[in-house]
Amino acid sequence: MGKITIWHNPRCSKSRQALSLVEENGCEKEIVKYLEETPTKDEIKNILSMLGVSAREMMRTKEDIYKELDLKDENNEEKLIDAMVANPKLIERPIVIKNDKAVIARPPEKALELLS
User: Fold this and answer.
1) How far is CA 25 from its chain centroid?
2) In whole angstroms, what is the distance from residue 86 CA to residue 39 CA?
3) I need a labelling partner for 58 at 20 to 30 A (CA). Which of 2, 52, 73, 101 fits?
4) CATH of 4-115, one of 3.40.30.10, 1.10.10.10, 3.40.50.720, 3.30.479.30
């Protein structure tokens, strides 16, 4: 089984639950505390490609910063990605990555798709 990387926020219950599932399955893991180790623009683009989603689908649209930056009507992917780099709190969590695949583990059980 390949190593699992999880973009993790320890303060988030869903993120903690997904991490527990990874640990319960005995997976070798790397934990990226993305709020402390802000992902680069290229890293975010790579994850978006693995997820197969748009930048907005990887964003926490209910965060105050999303509203403050008035991103609701922004359709430029580059600007949305730049907003996530500048404000990692906008990145949906947790993101579980294995090889060239990733899932947003909401609900946390979605992580199981990569653990088998």
Assistant:
1) 20
2) 9
3) 2
4) 3.40.30.10
Place of tokens 């623009």: 41
pLDDT one digit per residue (tens) for the chain, 116 residues: 579 999 999 999 999 999 999 999 988 999 999 999 999 999 999 999 999 999 999 999 999 999 999 999 999 999 999 999 999 999 999 999 999 999 999 999 999 999 87
Task: Give the global pTM.
Answer: 0.93
Single out the catalytic residue among 12, 32, 50, 85: 12
Contact between residue 11 and residue 98 where contact means Cβ atoms under 8 Å apart: no
Is 27 labeled as catalytic in the residue annotation? no
Contact by Cβ (8 Å): 94, 14? yes
